[in-house]
Amino acid sequence: MKFSDHVALITGGASGLGLAVARLLGSEGANLVLVDWDGPALEAAAAGLAASGLRVRHLQGDASESATATAAVEVARSSYGRLDVLFNNAGIDPLLARSVVETVEADWDRVMDVNVRSAYVFSRAAIPLMREGGGGAIVNTASIAGLRPGGDEAVYSVSKAAMISLTQSVALDFAADKIRANCVCPGFMEMVMTDRRKDLTEEQQAARAEGASARVPLGRQGTYEEVAKTVAFLASEDASYITGAALVIDGGLLLT
Fold it and tell me: 166: closest CA among 108, 116, 92?
């Protein structure tokens, strides 16, 4: 029970990687606070976790808004009295946001808000409460696209590069407060991101998965559970001397 009596706040927690991390940290003793913009999915996720015997609170809201971040941290304070782990996982990758010529300004701004500003406002809101508790761990979801831009994904790649830089800035600025900050950089995951999935047919998703697996040296896409284990490691005392790291989890894709 590595996270016994710890409190973990997770954005984008209603599905995918966020929910997988919630399940794992909760199974290791963590008290959970989930945030997501999708109210019905969030209600279902929280109910499922609670039915498994986990302690969970949830808040529906836009993670890019400072009011949502402030309210979520207050839920952690009022419900549990502390905050030990922040997992900034909210993210989008609109199908129409491609090259800089093809991406409209509204999509550019929205991606930067959800993918980067959310981590900024949540970190800003969370760090004071972490300080009160003597420290904590922040883990951010970046991407290998932040290390090597993906084709026709300009703003997504830029946002993930910014996330890596934000991670390192937080790690440097708050090390004296015993707050560590790291990020994970996944490659192809078992499903496309939630916002993209709504715009792709099942056939298109299957073709994407087949093509992705063919490109990865290990011959397959990664699972949410595999990345969740890495997030849990970085959030735990097992990673007590690791801060400012961008840990790649891509099956060797960056080697190609």
Answer: 116
pLDDT per residue, tens digit, the chain (256 aa), is 999 999 999 999 999 999 999 999 999 999 999 999 999 999 999 999 999 999 999 999 999 999 999 999 999 999 999 999 999 999 999 999 999 999 999 999 999 999 999 999 999 999 999 999 999 999 999 999 999 999 999 999 999 999 999 999 999 999 999 999 999 999 999 987 777 767 778 888 888 889 989 999 999 999 999 999 999 999 999 999 999 999 999 999 999 9
Which among 80, 120, 156, 224 is annotated as catalytic?
A: 156
Residue 24, amino acid: L
Dist. CA 208–CA 19, nearest whole Å: 23
Angstrom distance (rounded) from CA 12 to CA 235: 17
Name the pTM for this structure.
0.96
Q: In whole angstroms, what is the distance from residue 250 CA to residue 24 CA?
A: 20
125 to 141, 182, 249: CA distances (angstroms): 18, 17, 28
Mark whether 156 is an active-site residue: yes
Specify the pairing of strand 179-186 against strand 7-11: unpaired
- Name the 3-class secondary structure at 232: helix
Say how far apart CA 184 and CA 164 lie, in whole Å. 9
